[in-house]
Specification:
Chain lengths: 83, 392
């Protein structure tokens, strides 16, 4: 899972950090550091909670990559790519 | 588009025994998403009232159209200077915000936590040793919140009662009393700034008088604007939140039991209580004519973004009038949205959580004392006047 960080929307509520301090890093003023975040599988639940509690909608959960991967694995299980 | 509705004068907004002012304003969602309320400020001016959370977000983000410079404090004195950074618009706002943010950042608040907890424990142990009943507002919520805030400012505790009195007169007093309190607070901040210029210590006011923005020191008016805002913002908001929260737990023993059994839930529960019992009305001034969701807002009009209304928006929160201490994804607006997000929010949150944790772990099952009635009120800042709890 990836989290897209809209840094210009961050207003320093730090709700993401409260849920998952290991995933979301803040600068000295308390605003999120710029740059999208690749979330390890073990952190996904907390990261999702953190992203969903942003009052400014500054954090977007990107599951496009996961979906691609799922489809790929599924197709593999069925005997490889459907061609 | 005009509606008889006011946070000052509608039913349940004046001092009300056993009142529930938050439920009383939740009815704003029955009608249009924006309407005009002819008498919705302390000085009797009308405001447009924005009821939906998403529209409040739009107003509070659009600082080019909706200015935060209202001179709310100075105008009570017939003057015109901004409380800083609240009443500055970007880009000037950002300069002061960056100066003050590190003082109240989440990491900085973590450093303050042990002192905050100790203060809570001393107060609660004192109460529990003395009696099986107390007025939570007078004996705990105010002394706790105000002493933390005095500590932050670098002021001694012995003036606590005086400051609480000024705050009460300012926020909840009428006419003459309110103006007198405003004058007293301005004089106090000016004197304090002058003292710290002469004899610097290591407190907040010294930091402000020695600070630089854009490579220059702050003007006297800027120092005053910051000092007054920090003074007023810290005086009763946290105490009020603790009061509403403990009143809720006193009336809802099941939820009280839940938090006693599983104290790890207190952090999340505090967010839900902030949502349900948020206390502040934000006001913006239109900088130009704009049609907003069908309403003809004109330059100079006031626009009210009341947190307590947005936080009961059914489009934003499932069953908004139900308090669910396990509610997740709780993107409430208790500390506002946008660049003016409450600078003290991280400190306020920790104070509330610590107060609930220590109260629940040191005071047995409590309820509202028989034959006593808490008095609540609405207004610019919602409040609770007294809360007598009993655990005999």
């Amino acid at each position: 899972m990836r989290i897209i960080v809209h840094r210009d929307k961050c207003q320093g509520h730090a709700r993401c950090w409260a849920h998952a301090p290991d995933v979301f890093k803040l600068d000295d003023e308390g605003y999120i550091l710029p740059g999208d975040i690749e979330v390890a599988e073990r952190d996904e639940l907390l990261a999702t909670r953190g992203a969903r509690s942003c009052p400014e909608r500054a954090l977007e959960i990107d599951r496009a990559f996961d979906a691609l991967l799922d489809r790929f694995l599924f197709n593999q299980a069925c005997g490889g790519f459907n061609t | 588009m005009v509606r008889d509705f006011s946070l000052f004068t509608s039913p349940g907004m004046g001092p009300t025994p056993d009142g529930d002012p938050h439920a009383a304003v939740a009815c704003a969602h029955d009608a249009l998403p924006i309407f005009y309320s002819p008498n919705n400020t302390r000085d009797g001016r009308g405001t447009w009232v924005i009821t939906r959370a998403k529209d409040q977000r739009r107003v509070l983000h659009d600082t080019a159209t909706f200015s935060s410079h209202r001179s709310i404090f100075a105008s009570a004195l017939g003057e015109n200077w901004p409380m800083i950074p609240l009443e500055l618009d970007p880009p000037a706002h950002g300069v002061f915000r960056s100066l003050l943010n590190p003082l109240l950042s989440p990491k900085r608040v973590m450093v303050l936590e042990p002192a905050i907890r100790e203060r809570a424990i001393v107060l609660i142990d004192g109460i529990s040793a003395a009696s099986t009943s107390c007025d939570v507002m007078k004996d705990f919520a105010f002394p706790f919140a105000v002493s933390i805030f005095l500590h932050f400012l670098g002021l001694p505790d012995e003036r606590l009662d005086t400051f609480v009195g000024w705050g009460k007169d300012l926020l909840h007093g009428e006419g003459v009393k309110r103006t007198a309190a405003a004058r007293t607070i301005v004089a106090f901040i000016d004197d304090l700034a002058a003292e710290r210029r002469k004899e610097p210590t290591d407190d907040f006011m010294t930091f402000v008088v020695e600070a630089k923005v854009d490579g220059r020191p702050l003007t006297d008016e800027e120092v005053r604007g910051i000092g007054v805002l920090v003074f007023v913002a810290g005086l009763d908001t946290v105490a009020t939140a603790i009061g509403f929260d403990l009143a809720y737990l006193a009336r809802n023993p099941k939820d009280q039991q839940l938090l006693r059994r599983e104290p790890d839930r207190i952090g999340l529960a505090a967010e839900e209580l902030l949502r349900a019992y948020s206390t502040v009305q934000m006001i913006r001034v239109a900088k130009k004519d704009i049609d907003f969701e069908g309403a003809p807002i004109r330059k100079g009009d006031y626009i009210s973004c009341a947190t307590m209304i947005a936080n009961r928006d059914p489009a934003e929160f499932e069953n908004p009038n139900t308090i669910d201490l396990a509610r997740e994804d709780n993107r409430h607006t208790a500390f506002a949205y946008g660049p003016h997000r409450c600078l003290g929010s991280h400190l306020a949150r920790r104070e509330i959580v610590i107060a609930l944790e220590e109260w629940l772990s040191r005071i047995p099952d409590f309820r509202i004392k028989e034959d006593t009635v808490p008095i609540t009120y609405g207004g610019h800042v919602f409040g609770i006047e007294n809360l007598i709890l009993d655990w005999s």
